[in-house]
Amino acid sequence: MALSRRQFVGAAAGTAALAATGTATAQEEPDYGGWFDDVSNYDGTVDKRGQDTVTITVGAQGNNGAFAFDPAAVMVSPGTEVVWEWTGEGGGHNVVSDGDGPLDSGSAVSEAGTTYSHTFESEGMFKYVCIPHKALGMKGAVVVRPGSGSSGDGGSGGQQQQGPPENPDYGGWFDNVSNYDGTTVDRTDADSVEISVGAQGNNGAFAFDPPAVRVTPGTEVTWTWTGEGGGHNVVSDGDGPLDSGGAVSESGTTYSHTFEEMGVYKYACVPHESLGMKGAVVVGGPLGGSGGGSGGGSEQEGSGIELSGPQWLLSGSVLLAFFSPLLFAVAMRRRQNGRPPQMGEGGELQRATGPEPVEEAKETEPAVELGHDEYDPKGTAALVAFYFVLIGLLWVFMYFVEFLGRVSIIG
Amino acid sequence: MVFVDSYPKTSKLVRSEFLVAFVALGIGALFGVVQALHRTGVFRGFVSSADYYTILTGHGVLLALVFTTFFIAGLFTWAVANSLERELPQRIAWSAFWIMLTGTVLAAVSIIGGLVGAPSILGHDLKADVLFTFYAPMKAHPAFYIGAALIIVGSWVAGLAYFKSLWEWRSENPDERIPLQTFMVLTTMLMWYVSTIGVAVEVVAFLIPWSLGLIQNVDPLLTRTLFWYFGHPVVYFWLMPAYLVWYTILPKLAGGRLFSDPLARVVFVAFLLLSTPVGFHHQYTDPGIPSGYKFIAMTNTMFLLLPSLLTAFTVVASVEHGARQRGAKGYLSWLRNLPWGKPAFAGCMLAGLMFAAGGFSGMINAGMNINYLIHNTIWVPGHFHLTVGTAFALTAMAISYWLVPQITGKKLRQRSIATLQPYVWFVGMAVMSNAMHRAGLAGIPRRTAEPTYDEFAFEGVAGTVGEMRIQIAIGGFLLFVGAAMFLIVMADTLLARRGGTLSVNSNIPEPLSGADHSPRILDNYKLWTAIALLLIVIAYGPPLASMVADGLFAPGSPPIPV
Ligand code: HEM
Ligand SMILES: [Cu+2]
Question: What keywords appear on the UniProt entry (chain B) (predicted)?
Answer without folding.
Answer: Electron transport, Heme, Iron, Membrane, Metal-binding, Respiratory chain, Transmembrane, Transmembrane helix, Transport
